[in-house]
Amino acid sequence: MLDLLLDSLLDSLKVFAVAFVLYFIFSFLHEKVTQLFQKHKGISPVVGATCGLIPECGISIVGADMYQKKQISRGTILAIFFACSDEALFILFSDYHKMIYILPLLGIKFIFACILGYVVDVKASSLNTIDEVKLDCCEHEHKEETWIHKHLLHPFSHCFTIFLYVFIINLFFGMLVYTIGEEVILTFLKSNEWLSPLFAGFIGLIPNCASSVLMTELFLMNGLSFGALVTGLSINSGLGLMYLLRFKETRKDALWMTLIVFAYALLIGYSIMGLMRLF
User: Fold this and answer.
1) Backbone φ, ψ for residue 234 (5° rounding)
2) What is the model's pLDDT at position 134?
3) Do residues 166 and 11 make contact, with C-beta atoms less than 8 angstroms apart?
4) Which of 16, 99, 117, 226 is the most exposed place for a label (fewest CB within 10 A)?
């Protein structure tokens, strides 16, 4: 049992180290990323998908806030939501056996996020009605922060939260495997492989970065296929959709977006599973 505790702690510390370095870098680029939406409206779904790939769960909330203020289009916010992966990348980076899946995961999510964004924008004819992005409030908020708080304390605090999620998930699965047996768990998951994208999709609906941790840990244990992982992480948009549900005027939009992303991600996940079976 002590070995299980130590293994969970060491694995979680590796994720924490990688996450802190990336969040520290991103803390210097936050304003520039926001300004991209203002300067490149014609390619805003591409910009949205690019920003969504950044492993920062706050991106979806920033995007949701901008959409609620009518500063970006519906296609752009959908591209952001679909491209989000939250903490999954940190966990994949920490396992050198699974690192080869990082680029395919990012590539698939980026391409299909852009497609979704443009299809929705063209259909809704919303690209020409995007309002100007107002950055004064955001900039003022950051000016009040000290350098240490903005670039060190905030990244550390967020990464510590990630560390706790990962540690709890690692410990939980470790105890589950220890009690039930790894073979029994993996056999159950593999015997229902064609339901795994649907299973991952429902986990992805959980509005918390712990859900992306859970799905990635299952993937590392070979309990979820790559197609199922793509489905779950594409549906998982952190707290962005929950933010939109706070406002009466965007509540219906949030529900509509959830259904669209869920169906779209399932289609892609099952397609990937089918192609991997063929080749």
Assistant:
1) -75, -30
2) 47
3) yes
4) 99
**Cα–Cα distances in angstroms (integers) from residue 193 to residues 36, 56, 142, 199, in the given order:** 40, 30, 46, 10
Cα dihedral 124, 129, 130, 134 in deg (nearest 10): -150
Distance, CA of 67 to CA of 179 (rounded, Å): 46
The token duo for 205 is 């609906």
Tokens for 168, please give them: 């709890």
pLDDT digits (tens, 9 = 90+) for 217-270: 889 888 899 999 999 999 988 678 877 888 888 899 999 999 999 999 999 999
* Length of the chain (residues): 279
What pLDDT does 158 receive?
73
Instruction: Give exposure, 252-276, as e/b (b: 16+ Cβ within 10 Å).
Output: ebbeebbebbbebbbebbbebbeee
Using DSSP, state whether 91 is helix, strand or coil.
helix
Which residues lie closer than 8 Å to 36 by C-beta, 6 or more apart?
A: 47, 51
CA 276 – CA 279 distance, rounded (Å): 5
What HEC string does 19-37 produce?
Answer: HHHHHHHHCCCHHHHHHHH
Residue 72 near residue 130, CB atoms below 8 Å: yes
The Cα 44–Cα 53 span in angstroms is 14
Tokens describing residue 156: 């550390």
Confidence band, pLDDT 50/70/90 cuts, at residue 103 = very high
